[in-house]
Backbone:
């Protein structure tokens, strides 16, 4: 079976055009790790870029890579028409059995559904719902992404939904849906390294610093715990864009916390650095006001961290049946603070046994095999 996977090369996303090796979002990267072990599958990864880049021909023995140069005019300002045409030309040469678009945030899925091949798409972020929640202005990027998502879902042969929440939003707009979780990258399944015991409780928060992730609210939780005399430190990881007003305010507020010793901002981290941080920490807190899946939650639980989160979106699915995972209503800041305080006073234990559950649910091989089953279903239906 020959499959084309249309996804974003993060060299384009971060404008790091001098790099010679492509890299991808956490979920597509993990999926490719699962596909790499399937001998009867030939995978062609297709990504668009606004500048030509040197790239390898293969990412694995059975995974080929194609980087397509598309001038800037062919991107969002023309509803990705340049990307749609470039992808269609390349697919005509590849001749895949099926095309799989990764995400409706950018060009990937809209290019997929206009490819003239049997196709499916995966929802990573619910763009229409985000536009509604945050009242995206008319003709803004968020508003346009929502319109293109609606077009995409109507034309797709089927949609992979990463949580019950995502499926509830997608099902009314799609011909067919499957609930398939995002996979966890293999690195997170190595046996967790046991850190030396310390008196300070370290809690990590991971995510781009934005209003949706609510880092400033979490900073106030850390302050309240500190004022109770608890020896705790929140460590914030993620990019903070200097032109984002929320990120700027967060960086201003965290200076006092860093001086007092109850929180610090650590910027972005590589996967290896993040795994090492998880192994040194005791818990993860993730309290957004919208979340399609919440892959970082599954990754942290694979490292057997205690987890405190908002009871919404895919976080509910991931936390189901996991000892040490505590969820609170999305605006219950008092409950979150009290729950974390109680945990710290009890010695801040980690989550025991979560690793095996995460393997069973989210290992790349498990999720890749489910993808293959669905590909066969779609091809059988469209034959």
Residues:
């Amino acid at each position: 079976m020959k499959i084309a996977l249309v996804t974003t090369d993060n060299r384009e996303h971060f404008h790091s055009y001098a790099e010679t090796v492509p890299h991808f979002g956490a979920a597509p990267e993990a999926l490719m790790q699962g596909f790499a072990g399937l001998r009867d599958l030939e995978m062609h990864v297709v990504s668009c870029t606004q500048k030509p880049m040197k790239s390898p021909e293969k990412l694995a023995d059975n995974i080929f890579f194609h980087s397509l140069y598309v001038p800037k005019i062919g991107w969002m300002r023309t509803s990705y028409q340049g990307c749609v045409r470039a992808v269609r030309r390349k697919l005509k040469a590849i001749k895949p059995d099926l095309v799989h678009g990764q995400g409706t945030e950018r060009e990937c899925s809209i290019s997929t559904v206009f490819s003239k091949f049997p196709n499916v798409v995966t929802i990573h972020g619910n763009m229409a719902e985000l536009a509604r929640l945050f009242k995206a202005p008319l003709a803004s990027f968020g508003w346009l992404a929502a319109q293109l998502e609606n077009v995409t879902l109507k034309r797709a042969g089927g949609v992979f939904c990463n949580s019950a929440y995502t499926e509830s939003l997608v099902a009314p707009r799609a011909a067919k849906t499957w609930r398939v979780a995002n996979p966890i990258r293999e690195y997170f399944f190595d046996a967790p390294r046991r850190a030396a015991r310390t008196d300070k409780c370290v809690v990590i928060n991971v995510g781009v610093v934005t209003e949706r992730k609510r880092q400033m609210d979490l900073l106030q939780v850390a302050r309240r715990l500190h004022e109770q005399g608890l020896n705790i430190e929140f460590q914030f990881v993620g990019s903070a864009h200097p032109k984002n007003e929320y990120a700027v305010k967060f960086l201003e507020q965290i200076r006092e916390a860093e001086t007092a010793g109850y929180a610090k901002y650590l910027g972005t981290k590589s996967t290896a650095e993040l795994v090492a941080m998880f192994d040194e920490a005791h818990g993860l807190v993730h309290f957004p006001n919208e979340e399609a899946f919440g892959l970082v939650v599954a990754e942290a639980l694979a490292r057997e961290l205690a987890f405190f989160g908002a009871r919404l979106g895919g976080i509910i699915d991931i936390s189901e049946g996991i000892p040490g995972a505590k969820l609170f209503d999305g605006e219950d800041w008092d409950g979150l603070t009290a729950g974390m305080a109680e945990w710290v006073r009890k010695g801040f234990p980690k989550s025991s046994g979560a690793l095996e559950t995460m393997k069973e649910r989210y290992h790349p091989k498990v999720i890749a095999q489910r993808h293959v089953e669905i590909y066969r279903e779609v091809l059988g239906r469209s034959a």
User: Anything to note?
Assistant: The chain has 15 helices and 14 strands.
